[in-house]
Amino acid sequence: MSDSSSFWSIECPVGDPDLFVCMNCLEEVFRAQVPIQGCPGCGAVSSFEAFSFDSLKDWGTEELIQKAQALGAQSGTSTPSAELISKVDDSLSI
Asked: What is the pLDDT of residues 41-91, one digit of tens each?
C-alpha cells in the first residue's frame, strides 16, 4: 500500500493532530492520510481518528508509538521548529 493513490490525503493545519490511528485495532497509524481500502491490519473503514504524538504516547502501545515515531522520522518533524516560526513571523512584520 505504498502507492500514494491508495490513500486519502488529509489537510492538517499546523498545530492540529496529524497522526491518524485505526480505532478498531489500535495497531495502525498514518501521518496526514488514511488508506482508501480501509485499515491494512484489520480492514476497518472509517475508523480513523486524529491524535498528536504527545497524546498518542499517553495511551498507545509501544508498537504503535514506534510506528508513529518512524512516520515522524520520514517526514522530518511533526511540528515546525521554533526557529522556523520565528523567521516566518519576522518576515510578516517587515
From this structure: 999 988 999 999 999 999 999 999 999 999 986 654 444 433 334 434 444
pTM of the predicted structure, to 2 decimals: 0.71
Residue 54: C-alpha distances to residues 57, 60, 62, 65 (Å): 5, 10, 13, 10
Containing domain of residue 76, as a range? 4-92
DSSP notation for 70-81: HHHHHSS-SS--
The total of structural domains in the chain comes to: 1
Unique residue bearing C-alpha cell 501521518: 31
- Count of C-beta atoms within a 10 Å radius of residue 31: 17
